[in-house]
DNA sequence: CAAGCAGTTTAGAACAATTCTAAAACTGCA
DNA sequence: TGCAGTTTTAGAATTGTTCTAAACTGCTTG
């Protein structure tokens, strides 16, 4: 079962304008066939290498960037040199546990942010990131 | 006038547990004797080098980290490999213009964030960062 | 006010994260 | 199946930051 090709993923990639190559599909499966995940390039690379679909680190970086640009992933920068890719692209925010580098989602349903000033003129809103930093 | 030593800065550094050395005072003057600023290590280093108080890049990094640890500065990470130090340590949030890397403060007076979930158990709140990302 | 020691600075090496390069390997279409 | 354009790859290069070890400086003491 785990060796089978998932046609949905191939379709999803094609719709994003990306050819469903062996490597991209392998990474997409690791990312999207399970619950929401937070990965770094290094962690995903280690995972792929350990599994039966080794993918070079350069390709992991390329693919994560392409997935992000295509809207399949969201990048969250929590600290200098610490960047996560989040498979949850819906509206939500993050807890970041500074003492051990963990990142957790929380839904934005209940959260309301009021009174934000208008974007500087000549710019349009791209996204509002809320990172709640906590420590143990 | 601009060559004079500012005793307040020396005091402020000493209170932070830092010896007021020539280099630290020079950087503190560049940072704190004007309106609130957003600097990077590189930009501050370039500035110091151009002025009459050249300071090595290593010292700029050390000093920024010390100032941040002492609460004199706040670090804002906006993108991978892009970290600003903000001389405004009060409550406020940021606009980040993704297309050109600019960072702007905005006061948090008017902004209310309601409905944030409680921190994960075993952790205590450190800070809530709100970054409003915009593009031209 | 000289001496000495801990704290600081520095250039350069080292390191970590990410991107680039150029060549080999693929993918998809004709 | 052949072929043109994409994609992958290893390794080099780049970028941002920290480390190292030696020289220097600020502060305290005798």
Summed up, what is this model?
The structure is a homodimer of 136-residue chains. Helices cover 32% and strands 29% of the residues of chain A.
Lay out the secondary structure:
The structure is a homodimer of 136-residue chains.
Chain A lengths: L6 H9 L6 H11 L5 E2 L1 H10 L6 H13 L4 E6 L2 E5 L5 E6 L4 E6 L4 E3 L9 E12 L1
Parallel strand pairs in A: 4-7
Antiparallel strand pairs in A: 1-3, 2-3, 4-5
Helix pairs in contact in A: 3-4
The first copy, chain A, binds a DNA duplex (30 and 30 nucleotides) through helix 2 and helix 4.
Order of helices and strands of chain A: HHEHHEEEEEE
The name of the CATH topology of the largest domain in chain A is Arc Repressor Mutant, subunit A
Instruction: Give the oligomeric state.
Output: homodimer
What does the main sheet of chain A amount to? 3 strands, antiparallel
Instruction: Provide the residue-averaged pLDDT of chain A.
Output: 90
Put simply, the count of helices of chain A is 4
Low-pLDDT parts of chain A are none
Overall body shape of chain A: globular
